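Final report, section 2: Outcomes. Of the targets proposed, Pseudouridine synthase is the one most frequently requested by collaborating groups, and we therefore present its record in full.
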Amino acid sequence: MRLDKLLELEKIGSKRKVKALIRSKQVTVDGMVIMSENQNVDPAVQDIYVEGKKIQRHSHVYYMLNKPQGVVTAVKDAQHQTVIDLISLDDQRAGLYPVGRLDRDTEGFLLITDNGQLGYQLLLPHKKVSKRYEVVVNERLTTLDSQAFAEGIVFADGKKCKPAKLQILSSEKNESHAHLDITEGKFHQVKKMFLSVGKKVIYLKRLSMGPIQLDPALGLGEYRSLNQEELQALRPYFTIHKKEKSVEHEI
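The predicted structure is given below as tokens.
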């Protein structure tokens, strides 16, 4: 939520007064004086003070969802159930959306929020937010595959992926298990990366995004609000930034 909008909701005063307070350095966020009224803020994550008084309102919601297969990562879809449909009506609110994208046949962690600016920051390519996946492929994985991922996989069209970490957990002739860490999100990236080394992904699950890991207690299709520790881990993505570059498509 914009800082000026939050202060107006808190009945701090008129728009003119709010601007005056900001310009007179009476507003701080996490100990820093804020001079821009359009800064994205959230009292659930940050310490916001106006004239020495802390703002307590929680303006956004943050849900961790364990996405099941067969559900599309979208707000609305005419044919398929969406991840937003998995959120109970009591927990839904205007602007709720999934941060990033998982294919319909991919399971695992999704952050669902109504904080658009936070989602924008998490998806910016230069932020290099790491995503970890559990992957099962139909061929034997070798150290040569790990080296290829570390050097940066090159697709058939010449596009090169950023270096990625492939940790082989088990390797058999007809099935191998691994963890993959990537810091970008090209369309169908994980599947294309493995195809580039001659393997087909037969199961894919996201385990984490940035500092937040999927709660193993969550069953498929279940969700919960982020706890305070997880919210605090997101603090770096609420910092002040100049105009950012456009985001890439998530997987």
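The first strand starts at residue 27 and ends at 29.
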